[in-house]
Amino acid sequence: xxxxxxxxxxxxxxxxxxxxxxxxxxxxxxxxxxxxxxxxxxxxxxxxxxxxxxxxxxxxxxxxxxxxxxxxxxxxxxxxxxxxxxxxxxxxxxxxxxxxxxxxxxxxxxxxxxxxxxxxxxxxxxxxxxxxxxxxxxxxxxxxxxxxxxxxxxxxxxxxxxxxxxxxxxxxxxx
Length: 175
Prior knowledge:
mainly alpha
């Protein structure tokens, strides 16, 4: 019974994380200089990946962001977004460290957020370079840097507050 409860909890957390990323991505969309758009989905990717771990971080980042691209009419980006944002969530979850008591280390949250955001910028640059050429790839770098930086700046204090409040313990999350 315990194993069955754990599976159900995992499914519910995964579905909720995917939905949160999709909605956060679609609520605010600021067009980038050439195709694409700036959004707040990465904030939710960082938060869900840090709190819920690698598998859910990958699923939420990849599926949630790809769903937003499909629903928003950016079909051409959906496959790349699935990979880029999925790996972004995975990187963040893998780099976030815990202390002996199981609390998230604030320094690791900062480093993980920055490196995850930089991966996102690089991933989209590579995709856009090969799909659309240098004329699309380079102009979107500053917009992607802004998106990653703002997302990290918003997610980090939220994660630190969540850790301080004990929400990870209350959710009984097995990362």
